[in-house]
Amino acid sequence: MNEQGHVLVIGGANLDVIGQPEVPLVAGSSTPGRIHTSMGGVARNIAANLAQLDVETVLLTAVGDDEAGASLLGRAAGRGIDISEALVVEGAATGAYIGLLDANGTLNVAIDDMGVLVHLSPAYLQARIHLFEAARMVVVDANPASESLQVIVELCRRFAIPLCADPTSASLAGKLAPHLTSIHMISPNVRETYALCGHAFETHDAQAARQAARALVGLGVNLAVITLGEHGVVYADIETAGYIPAVKTEIVNLTGAGDAMTAAIIFGLLEGIPVDECVRLGVTAATLTLRTRETVRSDLNVDLLYDELVI
Predict the structure, then answer these.
(1) What pLDDT is recorded for position 2?
(2) Of 66, 130, 204, 297, which residue is least crowded by CB atoms under 10 Å?
(3) Over the chain, what HEC string results?
(4) pLDDT at res. 311
(5) Residue 20 pLDDT exceeds 90
(6) Residue 177 has pLDDT above 90, yes or no
């Protein structure tokens, strides 16, 4: 891995609208609760967390020429993310995500509208080959089209750049399955793991999850980190496998915690930190993010991570 250069993050940037009821949901009827709107998107969230950790970050995404798109890019730039090559698509609507939580904060159902990301085309990516050549690492979510993901993989292989991937959702994760031999680190949840390698297990079964992580390594991934929600995280690489239990904490908002974990693990990998500590940094970042209504915690920094580091 190059010690100089930026981290190139590719994928979604969108508006998040999250609803959480105050009482159990009732089908076919409105339910009293709270609705919160924030900036989101897996790639955008990862980029923002990396920038908070003082990592030079370039974001390749596509937004519409609307108020939401302008706000997303403006706030990303305000966090120190390089958005100079992001695409503003005339006449298109910026991506949006609507999530409905249960009363305890767990995601019940969600809808995403990410059609604008079709403009992250192979031609768009090839025209920015210089960003790949100068990168020390590339991070991608699963939103780009399969043809675009293929180009990303080929460019990373051409320039010998480590590629990290966030599967994003169970419905999108399968697009990454053909590329596991080219992925340095991947961070799926339980359902995304099944889409990637066909291993089915319950979130409370850490032993089965560890076997699934080893299976992903057997399929070519260098480091697999599987999130088990309230039951913690398992991980495996070619040499070892481990389990880190979740930290009991107040949960204000689940949205963004997984992206914070991925970013903190990537930070650790960039710093050459041992895998166990990288994952502990990730769990710590996720825990800190759970405690805030923000999708990306605005006061996240390296000192805070180590002050709160999961033991």
Answers:
(1) 66
(2) 130
(3) CCCCCEEEEECCCEEEEEEEECCCCCCCCCCCEEEEEEEECHHHHHHHHHHHCCCCEEEECEEECCHHHHHHHHHHHHCCCECCCCEEECCCCCEEEEEEECCCCCEEEEEEECHHHHHCCHHHHHCCHHHHHCEEEEEEECCCCHHHHHHHHHHHHHCCCCEEEECCCHHHHHHHHHHHHHCCEECCEHHHHHHHHCCCCCCCCHHHHHHHHHHHHHCCCCEEEEECHHHCEEEEECCCEEEECCCCCCCCCCCCHHHHHHHHHHHHHHCCCCHHHHHHHHHHHHHHHHCCCCCCCCCCCHHHHHHCCCC
(4) 76
(5) no
(6) yes
